[in-house]
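Re: beginner question about structure tokens

> Can someone show what the tokenized structure looks like for a real chain? I only ever see the sequence side.

Sure, here's an example I had lying around. Input first:
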Amino acid sequence: MNRRDYIKKQSLASIGLLFTSELCATQLEDFSLDQLMGIATFKGVSTSEVQLLQKAFDAYTAMQKAALKEGIAIEAVSSYRNFDRQKAIFERKYTRFTQNDGLSPRAAFEKIIEYSTIPGTSRHHWGTEIDIIDGSKPRVGDVLVEEKFHGNGPYVKLKKWMDLNANDYGFYLVYTNDHNRKGFNYEPWHYSFKGLSKPMLDTYLGHDLKSVLRQANFKGATLLSEDLIERYIEEHVKDINPELRS
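And the corresponding structure tokens:
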């Protein structure tokens, strides 16, 4: 091992130890239900590009700097998202699918939850999530589509770099390309900062989510039957990358 590789390995080991220590400390923190549902006022770092909780932001900027040395400009096109924003996204799709595309309300609901969450259940409410692209590449059309991260897509180099390095900075892919996984479709762009999101998920699952969802107020909410709520929690909230549950 040459000196450069040794220094890099030692630096990454130190970063990993730091994030592990932060995870242990964070597990002692309390997260309110309002915070986890994106209702509380966001208390994190906000820049023109990204909104993240402080620890996630520090890890993100360190990862950005490292990737930039390899010619990759990690850019977050989505990060923190409050309840009202998620509600607007959900309702816009619901209206389009039912009124413009002619889908039944149930079919529209099922189509929405292929990629978009029910308001109040989004991981983006936490300030720990990022949807990323390579900002050095031209933007053409929709950027968060699977084919742009594979094959001859513009973000292949970014995806390969993240596969090798993201975990060293505490970030993990959430919705993996595992055919046995249910719930949301594969999202090669969505990463989560485990040091915060893991204890936040634990806290979130400790609440009576059935009662929370029964009180939801958004277009399509009347479709939330007992069976649909149970399936949504099991498949969409819980069925994620095992690394983010362990």
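Each token stands for a local structural state, so reading them left to right follows the chain. The chain has one domain: 3-244.
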